[in-house]
Design a protein that fits this description.
By secondary structure, the chain is mostly helical. The protein contains 10 helices and 10 strands. A hairpin with an 8-residue loop joins strand 5 and strand 6.
């Protein structure tokens, strides 16, 4: 936990938690990998639950298979976009030249060091889910609604691990919220921007759960697009506290993506709710009811 620094104008000190959670022989098990495992388990537990399977028509075995498809997409897409962004980011701002990866090819796949881009992982997961539903004939929107339910919590966990790993530093600040991070971000007090995003995502979790379980008249896809809009809003705000990489016309590259997510997500929430009601709908209690 963060410790209060009563004698300092800054309220918190960096906790210096070991990025390695535990060891199995010579194998290091890192918090970063555990956070992705935690997210995969959350999604699986949701998909294999009886109420979720009533809504999607999936079997328990298919729920397991879907998680595998999605996680492969997350890893491939997240790493690929990270590499592209890292090469495009100036070295002075923490990026690496293409020659760095050509000289150190193992770093291309070194996800155990961190280095995953959310937007790439998100698109990769959607591609994996799309391939799965095409093969099984299930509803894309209904599956995505279930997957999106606990994504805010999974993202929050990953951002906490980014903080442990001293990754994605915030901007320099004189605010009492500023924290003195260790090397290489030890050039002053910085906002703990990844924790801001974690708290924002936890705040999103409650309305997301309500949309799925508490509103029987929602249309398929509303939870999915609601999550996209909410993430876009949270991330756009957080980017003002995060150390920028690529900047264009005063906004970071991530903000252009997240503003698009916010706008598209909000529009699609309205759009899907205009669709005619289905013949049957699972109620908040899990029973199948007929809508009028």
């Amino acid at each position: 936990m963060l410790a209060l620094a009563a004698t300092s104008p800054h309220w918190f000190t960096y906790p210096n938690i070991d990025p390695v959670a535990f060891h199995i022989g010579r194998l290091d098990i890192r918090w970063y990998g555990l956070s992705y495992l935690f997210g995969a388990i959350l999604v699986y537990l949701q998909l294999q639950s009886a109420r979720s399977r009533e809504r999607t028509g999936l079997t328990v075995d298919q729920a397991q298979e879907l998680v595998v498809y999605a996680m492969i997409g997350v890893i491939l897409g997240g790493r690929l976009l990270f590499l592209i962004a890292d090469v495009l980011t100036p070295v002075s701002r923490g990026g690496h030249d293409l020659s760095y990866y050509l000289q150190n090819p193992i770093e291309i796949i070194a996800i155990w060091h961190g280095g995953m881009a959310f937007h790439g992982g998100f698109v990769g997961a959607l591609i994996g889910i799309w391939i799965f539903v095409r093969r099984t004939g299930t509803s894309f929107y209904r599956v995505c609604d279930e997957v999106a339910l606990w994504m805010p919590v999974a993202i929050a966990a990953t951002r906490c691990v980014n903080f442990i790993n001293n990754e994605l530093p915030g901007r320099l600040t004189d605010s009492p919220l500023g924290i003195a991070f260790p090397y290489p971000n030890n050039d002053g007090y910085r906002y703990p921007s990844v924790l801001f995003e974690a708290f924002g995502m936890l705040a999103v979790a409650v309305p997301t759960v309500w949309l799925l379980h508490g509103w029987s008249r929602r249309r398929d896809g509303l939870v999915f697009w609601g999550f996209i809009a909410a993430y876009g809003l949270v991330r756009t705000v957080v980017e003002f506290f995060r150390e920028p990489g690529i900047v264009f016309l005063g906004l970071t590259a991530a903000q252009y993506l997240t503003l698009a997510m916010l706008a598209i997500g909000a529009f699609m929430m309205w759009r899907v709710q205009q669709q005619p009601p289905p013949a049957v709908r699972t109620s908040a209690s899990g029973r199948v009811v007929t809508e009028k």
